[in-house]
Design brief:
Protein name: Methyltransferase
Helix content: 25-40%
Order of helices and strands: EHEHEEHEHHEHHHEH
Strand content: 15-25%
Distance between the termini: 21 Å
Organism: Streptomyces fradiae
Shape: globular
Keywords: Methyltransferase, Transferase
Number of helices: 9
Largest sheet: 7 strands, mixed
Structural class: alpha/beta
Strand order of the largest sheet: 3-2-1-4-5-7-6
Length: about 260
């Protein structure tokens, strides 16, 4: 299940990609399939081992084009072990809401991204996330849990202040917000509650089969209750002269700040 929309975030074979805070590796795997040179980085040792295993299995199965490479490694998002301008593309998906120094993380991403490179940032959307926090303290008050909720305009401003130029945004996973509301209402660790089990089966069916019915429903729900907010930006080729005024698009900045 991808949060980044690669039709809006073009990736070319041979691009150097950093999937920062890769987790289980979903975006790293997609980039590898598209022929990129991928580095999947996370601080979680077990997840990095699992991602490395899947990279090896993909190579063995011929799922990645010839010439593509993939590496999984442990690392600190606030002290990336790469030289300046190392990557053409950086992806950070559902990570910044966990990190106290989010400005520091953005600064590190900008440092390792080459001028003209592209970045995709995804975070939980304000409205659906606020409902989860209201329903359950256990949802966010855990070690490594969510420490903030971003409004759309706030995230776009932080990205601009870091020296990047946002060019587009959207919401994703409209079908997933009700699932997390149910989880929070019945207990985040209670997977046996009937409504939670039933909705989970729906989501698995949707992910595996991609039926037209749920695809249409999600497209309709994304602008209203999409679980994630996604911003795409570029690093200027020339020194930036300051923040860029004006909205990114209808899904962010002024119009979205009040409703996202």
């Amino acid at each position: 299940m991808l949060t980044v929309d690669f039709s809006r975030f073009p990736l070319a074979a041979g691009d150097r990609v950093l999937d920062l805070g890769c987790g289980a590796g979903r975006h790293a795997f997609e980039c590898y399939r598209r022929g990129a040179h991928v580095v999947a980085l996370d601080r979680n040792t077990e997840e990095i081992r699992e991602v490395a295993t899947w990279f090896a299995a993909m190579k063995e199965a011929g799922e990645a084009p010839a010439g593509a490479t993939a590496t999984a490694m442990e690392g600190d998002a606030l002290a990336l072990p790469f030289p300046d301008d190392s990557f053409d593309v950086v992806i950070i998906s559902e990570v910044m809401e966990h990190i106290p120094d989010d400005k520091g993380v953005l600064a590190e991403m900008v440092r390792v991204l080459r001028p003209g490179g592209r970045i995709a940032v995804t975070v939980p959307r304000y409205g659906p996330e606020k409902v989860c926090w209201a329903l359950s303290d256990a949802y966010h008050e855990v070690e490594g849990g969510h420490i903030r909720i971003y409004r759309a305009g706030e995230l776009v401003r932080r990205i601009r202040e870091a020296g990047l130029r946002p060019y587009g945004s959207h919401h994703a996973h409209g079908l997933h917000s009700p699932y997390w509301w149910l989880k929070c209402a019945f207990g985040v660790d209670n997977d046996k509650a009937l409504p939670v089990r039933a909705y989970h089966k729906l989501l698995v069916w949707d992910i595996m089969k991609k039926p037209l019915l749920t695809r249409v429903a999600e497209r309709a729900l994304d602008p209203l209750i999409g679980k994630s907010f996604v911003v795409y930006a570029t690093k200027p080729r020339l020194p930036d002269t300051g923040p860029v005024d004006g909205p990114v698009d209808a899904a962010s900045d002024g119009t979205a700040e009040g409703r996202a």
